[in-house]
Specification:
Blueprint lengths: L6 E7 L5 H16 L5 E4 L14 H4 L1 E5 L6 H14 L7 E6 L2 E5 L4 H15 L7
Antiparallel strand pairs: 1-3, 1-4, 2-3, 4-5
Length: 133
């Protein structure tokens, strides 16, 4: 059984982007996350559109499930990579929806400082007592 407190759901969306663009952005983010000390990074079920399909659920294409594992710093590492990745998207303006358990964080059209603070608070809420965020 999957521990929802140990799984981070990331949903990437972008206004006016087509399914192929969302899939490409999600793929880049997934590659970076796979370099971390996490158990798994996979696309959410139903994430791959059939070849040539036009009518697809874009929300499923941009969905990743990150299984954090037992490392106390895994969430902080993931958030650091996500923040860095987001900061490099000068040609696009993706919105992120992060969910861990019942806690949801949405980032869209925010300043770098607002994003940093929101991510810091999110990590702090999910860090073990006494652990450094």
């Amino acid at each position: 059984m999957e521990n929802t407190q140990n799984t981070l759901h990331i949903l990437l969306t972008e206004e006016d982007a087509d399914a192929e663009q969302i899939a490409e952005l999600t793929g880049y983010l997934r590659e970076e996350l796979l370099d971390l000390d996490v158990d798994d990074v996979r696309t959410a079920p139903g994430g791959e559109p059939p070849p040539g399909a036009r009518a697809v659920d874009v929300t499923q294409i941009g969905a990743l499930l990150v299984t954090l594992g037992s490392s106390a710093t895994a969430l902080n590492q993931v958030i650091t990579v996500v923040r860095s990745w987001l900061g490099r998207r000068h040609d696009t303006h993706p919105s992120l929806h992060l969910k861990m358990g019942d806690d949801v964080l949405e980032v869209s059209e925010a300043t770098d400082d607002q994003v940093s603070e929101a991510f810091r608070i999110f990590v702090q809420r999910h860090s073990p007592a006494g652990a450094e965020p």
